[in-house]
Write a structure and sequence with these properties.
258 residues; alpha+beta; D-amino Acid Aminotransferase, Chain A, domain 1; D-amino Acid Aminotransferase, Chain A, domain 2; six-stranded antiparallel sheet; 25% helix; globular
Length: 258
């Protein structure tokens, strides 16, 4: 992290020099957006989708991204080239900019972090994870905002209950994980929430894969009352890929293949 080279408003800097102003509204109010993807053997995975989602998030928040998609691509390919590690996590971040009154946005700071990939514990994949439900709704769920207040807060409770992820639930429905998407298997069909969630790029990849494997996928409302019918469940995200869920609160899922 500290030794790697990162992009900061037109300059390449080492981790120790990757700094923003304490007057930046992202620091005080959490108003900003970002996106994250994996680089496998120097190749970015689904890069265009991530850049597109990042640009969309910035537009919704009204943050002026001076660079176009092609410029962002160039920065990313350069960062992958000049950093030694071929397995990376790349984070594009757009802050709200320095705020005179602490409430208005200004010219954003654009950062691209190139972080060495650290795998999630192997046991999470082999044995599956426990998740807990968290009654809350994300504000502007289609935006990948820098504000993860609910997730960070709820994950402390998850940790106490020996769970590895939280699942946003509201109005008797399941939405998504704190930093992941959610799928379940009911009667050998994959079901996954469709509305009021982050348009997850891993979810898109999973759906494409499922189609290739002739596994039926239904994007629809998923109700808490259906948990008892789950034969299996998993979460997925860009940094995790697919991680099996074997316990939701106190309920043990039968998870077939583990
Ligand atoms: C709230 C939320 N939902 C879903 C996801 C999964 O998105 P993706 O598959 O694009 O990584 C994330 C990823 O961090 C997330 O933060």
């Amino acid at each position: 992290m500290l030794k790697n080279l990162h992009y900061l408003n037109g300059k390449w800097v080492r981790g120790k020099d990757l700094k923003i102003s304490a007057f930046d509204i992202t620091f005080l109010r959490g108003y900003g957006c970002f996106d994250v993807f994996r680089v496998y053997n120097k190749k970015p995975f689904m890069l265009n989708d991530h850049i597109q989602r990042f640009v969309k998030s910035s537009r919704i928040l009204g943050l002026k991204l001076k660079l176009g998609k092609k410029d962002i691509q160039k920065i990313i390919y350069k960062g992958i080239k000049i950093n030694k590690n071929s397995e990376l996590i790349v984070k594009m971040i757009l802050t709200g900019g320095i705020s005179q009154d602490g409430l208005s946005i200004s010219q954003p700071t654009f950062i691209v972090e190139f972080l060495d990939y650290k795998p999630w514990p192997e046991i999470f994949y082999r044995k599956g994870i426990k998740v807990i439900t968290f009654r809350s709704q994300r504000f502007l769920p289609e935006v990948k905002s820098t504000n993860y207040f609910q997730t960070v807060y709820a994950l402390k409770k998850a940790k106490k209950e020996k769970a590895q992820e939280i699942i946003f639930c509201w109005d008797n429905k399941i939405y998504e994980g704190g930093t992941s998407s959610f799928f379940a298997n009911i009667n050998n069909k994959l079901i996954t929430p469709q509305k009021d969630i982050l348009p997850s790029i891993t979810k898109k990849a999973v759906i494409q894969l499922a189609k290739k494997l002739h596994i039926e996928v239904k994007e629809r409302d998923v109700f808490l009352s259906e948990i008892k019918n789950f034969k299996e469940a998993f979460i997925c995200s860009s940094t995790r890929e697919i991680m099996p869920v074997v316990k939701i609160e106190k309920l043990i899922l039968k998870n077939f293949y583990l």
